[in-house]
Amino acid sequence: MIIKKLQASFGKLNGDTLELKEGLNVVSLGNESGKSTWSAFILAMLYGVDTSERAGAGKMPDKLRYKPWDGRPMEGAMEIETGGRMLRLERTGKGTALMKNFKSMNLATGADAGLEGETAGQELTGMSREVFRRSALVRQGTIKIDNTADLERQLVSTATGGEDDASYGQVRDRLENWRKALKNRQGGEISRLEQEEKELEAKIEDISALARTAAQKRAELEQLSEKLKAAEQEVELHRARESLDRGREIAKARMEVMRIEAEIKKLTGGHVPPTRSALTELERRLQAIDGCAAQVSAYEEKLAQAKTRRQERVPAETPFSGLSRQDAAAKLESARNVYQKAHPVSTVMFLFTVVFAVLTIVFAMVLQPDWLPAIPAALAVICLVIAVATTANHKKTLAKMRAEADKLGQDYSRYLEDISSAEAMDEAVNRAERELLAAREQLLAADDAATSYAGEVLGGSGTSDEIRPALDAAYALVDSVSELTVRRDAAVRYRDDISKDFERQDGKYDLDSLPVPVTQRQEAISALEDAREAHNSALSELSRLDGRLSAMGDYDALFARCQEVGAKKQIAMQEYAAITSAIELLDLANEELSMKFSPMLNEKAGEYFKKLTGGKYEALFMNNAMEAQVREEGAVVNRGAEFLSAGAGDQLYLAVRLAICELLLPQGAEAPPLILDDALSNFDDTRAAAAMELLGEIAQNRQVILFTCHNREESI
Questions:
Q1: Interatomic CA distance for residues 506 and 62, integer angstroms
Q2: Are 708 and 35 in contact (CB under 8 A)?
Q3: 3-state class of 177 per DSSP?
Q4: What is the pLDDT of residues 400-409, one digit of tens each?
Q5: 431: how many CB neighbours lie within 10 A of its CB?
Q6: Which of 82, 263, 364, 478 has the fewest CB atoms within 10 Å of its CB?
Q7: Could you give the 3-state DSSP secondary structure of residue 677?
């Protein structure tokens, strides 16, 4: 498990974010910057906040210590990588329900990750909250280990590979209390029963006669028990013979299974037949060929119709027939230009004539010649007549030209419509040809896909027409194999069902030398019922005798009480002996476990302590109380941890912590992280460098998060 990102509203952390990576993470923060808060936040995100914890002398519970300073609810989020998944854990809450609302999400899919708030930490780290807190979470000032029952159980589980439901100390204390309740210096249950038994034994002689009668009935009951046993053996003999018949039936059922399997092998040739889904897919691809072929036929018909319409089209005869669009437009424009140029000529000529006549009259009036007075007037009249006649004639010519231009425009419009219709028909033919080409390409692609897939499914290739009968044959083969498979499965179930009782009795009977029953099966059952009835009758008679013994007043009561006290005493003595043996065995087992686990812990912790101290100490020894002794290189006598300096003491217990993590915490890809809060604060520079080197080695196999107030760890 790798913690990737943290976001916390927790204590002094006001929505702060901390991003981490795989391997060794050194987080350098100054004093009162939130190092311990981040450590506590990680524990809270994994296991929640213990709201039942109460404040005590010198102790403040986490629910009060890490209440957000800004008054917001205590909440946060953690992104982790575990089991190949990226998960996001969220804890929120209001009031006294601190971080009770839990949500887990798979970041890749957005789906719920399936974790529960109460058990998320146990599932992700593989250990309980107490074991994680006392091993993987190394806080400042708490580096020394105390031997709690939870940690002891985990250590025992590591040493034995078994369960960790109880600790040695808890079990031994409970057994010792039970033993003292049975017998101790003040008396106990056994002493009291022994005294009462002695007082009762002197008073039960008078009941001996009736007791002998009961003994005779018990002897009779024993004889009946022997007879009952013989009857039971006779019935059991019949059952054994039935078992022999069952064995034959099993053999027959096995042969039927083998016959059906041989028939399946003969049909398939020893090969795995194609699946029905594969055949269905091949059939779908063949149907796709038919669909594409139908499309090709449709587009061929469409193309033929387009070509027919184009051939049947009759173009209109116009002055523009046979001309291109450009030439036709030029011809129309030329005719219109001729009309436009001719239009202003009549107006110009008329104006010229009128002006000439007016000038002539003016000239005559100015000069006023005496001779020829009528000449100017005559010229003027002649000019006006010519002008009027010319203008009228020109208008007729213009009208004719305009009519011809209008008709030419109409012919041009018909010409354009005819051209557009021809072009549309050509485009329809071209479009139909393109559609037909695309449909033929789709047909080829569908045919290739079907024949290629047929090679994969049927083991051979061919045309679609050749594939279809092969597909029908494959369907028939699959149906036959399916039917045989159903029959085989039914035969297997029948074989297994009738084999169950026989297999449970396998070895109980020697079927080859089994004797033949003396009686018939029904006679044996009847004899067994008679023997059981006689036995029960004798048992009832004995019960009545015992009832009379109980009803004989004080004597019977004394006798019964004596038996009861004796039985209780025996049970108590047996319990005392059993508890004593259990304590002795438990002590031996604990000693054996200590001998098994201690070398593992001492070897690993000694290795780490030697690295942390630069080889000054060659060995480290821990007892069951987690008290340590060390031996310097070349020394003979061990020294207790109390003789070490504060820094060396921290190094010793850090080595033990790291060793316990190595032995207790899960390894591999799911290894939970190791969290250290100012654990190196009492280390000098040399041993701090050695510690960082050791943490770097550990970080190759699990994530290590070191919170520190020094810059030296980050620079090492």
A1: 63
A2: yes
A3: helix
A4: 777 777 787 7
A5: 14
A6: 263
A7: strand
pLDDT for residue 7: 96
Segments in 368-463 forming alpha helices (H): 374-458
- Identify how many contiguous H helices and E strands the chain contains and give both numbers: 18, 12
Q: What is the largest CA-CA distance in the chain?
A: 208
d(C-alpha 422, C-alpha 649), whole Å: 105
CB-CB neighbours of 659 under 10 Å: 23
Contact 103, 75 (CB under 8 A): no
Encode burial over 576-613: b for 16+ CB neighbours within 10 A, e otherwise: beebeebbeeeeeebeebbeebbeebbebbbbbbbbbb
Annotate 275-333 with three-state secondary structure.
CHHHHHHHHHHHHHHHHHHHHHHHHHHHHHHHHHHHHHCCCCCCCCCCCCHHHHHHHHH
* Least confident interval from 104-108, 202-206, 400-404, 602-606: 202-206
- Phi first, then psi, for residue 270 (nearest 5°) are 85, 0
Burial-class residue 390 by CB neighbours within 10 Å (0-12, 13-18, 19+): middle
Tell me the C-alpha distance between 164 and 192, whole Å: 38
Contact in structure between 676 and 35 (CB atoms under 8 Å)? no
Closest CA to 562 of 218, 187, 211: 211
Average pLDDT of the segment spanning 684-710: 90
Count Cβ atoms below 10 Å from residue 275 Cβ, excluding itself: 11
Contact 713, 28 (CB under 8 A): yes
Question: For residues 93 and 48, what is the distance between their CA atoms, to the nearest angstrom?
Answer: 11
Alpha-carbon distance of 569 to 183, in angstroms, equals 11
**Residue pair 514/244 in contact by the 8 Å Cβ criterion:** yes
Nearest CA among 1, 184, 202, 192 for reference residue 89: 1
Helix 374-458 × helix 464-504 angle, to 10°: 40
Query: Is the distance from CB of 450 to CB of 279 less than 8 angstroms?
Result: no
Of 172-186, 508-522, 590-604, give the range with the top mean pLDDT: 172-186
Whole-number Å distance between alpha carbons of 393 and 404: 17
Burial class (CB in 10 A: 0-12, 13-18, 19+), 511: exposed
Q: Which of 501, 471, 51 lies closest to 244 in space, CA to CA? A: 501
Q: Which residues of 80-111 are buried (b: 16+ CB within 10 A; e: fewer)?
A: bbbeeebbbbbbbbeeeebbbebebbeeeeee
HSE-CB of 237 using CA atoms within 13 angstroms: 20
What residues form DSSP beta bridges with 628?
Answer: 622
* Of 204, 182, 201, nearest in space to 191 by CA: 182
Rounded CA-CA distance 524/446 in Å is 78
Could you say which DSSP state residue 614 is in? Answer: T
Report the C-alpha gap between 155 and 195 in whole angstroms.
46
Q: Which two tokens stand for residue 88?
A: 């996001």
- Does 259 score more than 80 pLDDT? yes
Could you give the CA distance from residue 92 to residue 82 in angstroms, rounded to a whole number? 22
Length of the chain: 716
Pick from 303, 295, 298, 294: nearest CA to 433: 303
Q: Report whether 147 contacts 626 (CB < 8 A).
A: yes
- Angstrom CA distances, 177 to 319, 414, 480, stand at 131, 123, 74
- Give the Cα separation of 66 and 43 in Å (integer): 12
C-alpha 650/C-alpha 683 separation (Å) is 8
pLDDT value, residue 149: 45
